[in-house]
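Lab notebook, bench 4. We co-purified these components, and the gel suggests they stay together. Before we commit to crystallization screens, I want a quick structural picture of the whole thing.
Request: model the full complex, all chains together.
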Amino acid sequence: EAQVTQNPRYLITVTGKKLTVTCSQNMNHEYMSWYRQDPGLGLRQIYYSMNVEVTDKGDVPEGYKVSRKEKRNFPLILESPSPNQTSLYFCASSPRDRTSWLHPHTFGSGTRLTVV
Amino acid sequence: KNEVEQSPQNLTAQEGEFITINCSYSVGISALHWLQQHPGGGIVSLFMLSSGKKKHGRLIATINIQEKHSSLHITASHPRDSAVYICAVSPAMKYGGSQGNLIFGKGTKLSVKP
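Here is the predicted assembly.
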């Protein structure tokens, strides 16, 4: 089944303890992206990647790192999580072809992160 | 000022009604996305369009690039259409946008009563 898989689904952690949220897709998509969703603010883009070894900042990159060493994986790293990073996180991917990178996204199921 | 504005924020309809959700944006775009977020939290991409109109089942999406406006219509609405509908735009590079960047509206919460 074509899908984007995020892990974990739920995570409670303490301030300052490094964590990684994994994202993997099995559709050979070039484009991958991370978003956070907060009440009243909606979805906001954190980082995105147009292809392997190519990453760019979205609108709210502070406090996050990403890497794209292989096509299928795009982990989100919080080196020193803080309570303001408590949020619902989504990973998404889409294909990109020679004429356009613009294709509908496939979203992961989300990761609910609580930082205490 | 938000770059993507949706209206209404909340919408309650009776089953069978025709529903329209609006999205206005202030930047030049290369594409506009309509997403559906289920009550359980999962997000599904409904449409991606850069001009004209697209239809899928009872859902129709239109876009007017000159007016920077898009609408999502649901015909013969059903309680299972109850969800949050989210508009998102990809800013065009020729207007200073960055390929891959996506800007979201805050969503329209739709509730369809039986």
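The radius of gyration of chain B is 14 Å. Worth comparing against the SEC data before the next meeting. The CA atoms of residues 32 and 89 of chain B lie 4 Å apart.
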